[in-house]
Design brief:
Structural class: mainly alpha
Helix content: over 70%
Strand content: under 5%
Largest sheet: none
Shape: globular
Oligomer: single chain
Length: 424
């Protein structure tokens, strides 16, 4: 029975995607707000805690293929609920940490939420076709809400309950990962073909069904992890884009508030500079369905990536004038074009990846995102410790934004040249 697209339960999947994107982005931003406090509490350099925060996506990258395989073997619903619960437990452990090692380990384990988020996001392609742009833009507003709400809320948590209480409150908020997972129904299992409602999930294949005739274990690995994706140049170029996305967004989310505090702004005022980025993201989500009708996804991706690079490069310039309004406006510009970039690249993914491979495609691409996140967490913090300011950090973020789209741009030029030569 085919999935009923663009109506009914599809919109519940859209709401679930909105929730997980709010939680994931908001939590990373919250940890960025907590960074100065944690550095002071544990008497560690900025890059150590910054690396710890960015290691969460790194661990998420390691566990993402497992999430993809479990989604195929069991169900997306069970996978999201279990991974979400593990992330919550990790935050509770962080709240009782007494050493840097324990804290970093707990931050690492919060990466389970990454796998949960990607599994939910991948379901959007299964449930939407005609209204995919609209649904994707709505779900992306979760990023805006997370960026706008969590920084000032986390600062309130810190001032009222301290960093330990803040971790416990974040753990409670992240319990909504489990709620989002429960929304991925109806459920079909290998031993139960009955569906809840009239919109079945994808068909889950028993372990023996995915094996080749000779029972080769390697064939199982290739099947459940969709490793054939790595033979596609278009897919590899998308991974490159996501590496740059991970580097730029993680660096911005973790270090924007500490950077603003370093410029002399009060913590509350600094947190609202980050909130401005959420406003830009929200505006982009509202306008994207209309922009997508006039520009192709690849063209919009190139424009957005360049504008993200420009906004990041302008940060050191405005920092010289210590302009609060200028930095807030720049944050809006960054949030707007970063959202446009993400939405357009998701449309590219939908256009080039087969639906049955979408879950693992999103999860593998997220591995690239996590690689960028880890590198950004280390280098952006290290550049600050090395120079005493964030100028080099933000200039590097700008350069990475441009480098990430180069493989896709080169591949598209090559394909266009090939088509022209065949048409002659």
């Amino acid at each position: 029975m085919a999935v009923k697209k663009d109506s009914g339960w599809a919109w519940m999947i859209c709401i679930a995607t909105f929730i997980v994107q709010t939680l994931e982005t908001g939590t990373v931003k919250a940890l960025g707000v907590m960074l100065p406090t944690l550095c002071q509490q544990f008497s560690t350099p900025t890059w150590v805690i910054g690396l710890g925060i960015s290691l969460a996506p790194g661990f998420g990258a390691i566990t993402s293929p497992l999430a993809g395989a479990l989604s195929k073997r069991v169900s997306p619903r069970s996978t999201v609920m279990v991974f979400g619960l593990l992330a919550v437990i990790a935050m509770i452990i962080a709240s009782v940490s007494t050493s840097v090692a324990t804290l970093l380990t707990a931050l690492l384990l919060t990466g389970f939420s990454i796998g949960a988020e990607c599994v939910v996001i991948s379901q959007m392609v299964i449930y939407f076709d005609e209204y995919y742009d609209t649904a994707n833009a709505f779900a992306e507003t979760g990023v805006a809400i997370g960026v706008m709400v969590m920084p000032p809320l986390t600062q309130l948590f810190l001032d009222t309950y301290g960093w330990r209480g803040s971790f416990l409150l974040l753990a409670g908020i992240n319990l909504y990962f489990i709620v989002s997972g429960a929304m991925l129904r109806p459920v079909s299992t290998p031993n139960n073909d009955a569906h809840i409602g009239n919109i079945p999930e994808t068909e889950y294949t028993p372990l023996m069904q995915g094996r080749s005739n000779n029972g080769c274990f390697l064939a199982n690995v290739v099947y459940y992890l969709d490793l054939t994706l790595f033979t596609d140049a278009s897919f590899l170029s998308l991974i490159s884009i996501y590496i740059s996305h991970g580097y730029c967004l993680t660096g911005w989310m973790i270090y924007l508030v500490p950077h603003s505090i370093d410029l002399g702004f009060e913590p509350y005022h600094a947190s609202f500079i980050a909130t401005a980025g959420g406003i830009g993201n929200l505006i982009a989500c509202i306008l994207y369905p209309f922009v997508a009708k006039t520009l192709s996804p690849s063209v919009l991706l190139y424009i957005a990536s360049v504008m993200v690079a420009v906004s990041l490069a302008m940060d050191p310039v405005l920092s010289l004038f210590h302009s609060y309004i200028g930095l807030a406006l720049l944050s809006i510009v960054f949030g707007f074009w970063r959202a446009m970039s993400k939405l357009s690249v998701m449309k590219v993914i939908k256009n080039v990846i087969d639906e049955d491979k979408m879950t693992n495609a999103v999860l593998w691409i997220n591995v690239g995102y996590s690689v960028g996140s880890i590198l950004s967490g280390f280098f952006s913090g290290w550049f600050f410790d090395l120079t005493g300011n964030y100028v080099l950090s933000f200039l590097t973020l700008s350069a990475i934004s441009l480098l990430g789209i180069c493989p896709q741009f080169i591949l598209e030029i090559g394909n266009n040249c090939k088509r022209k030569s065949l048409s002659k």
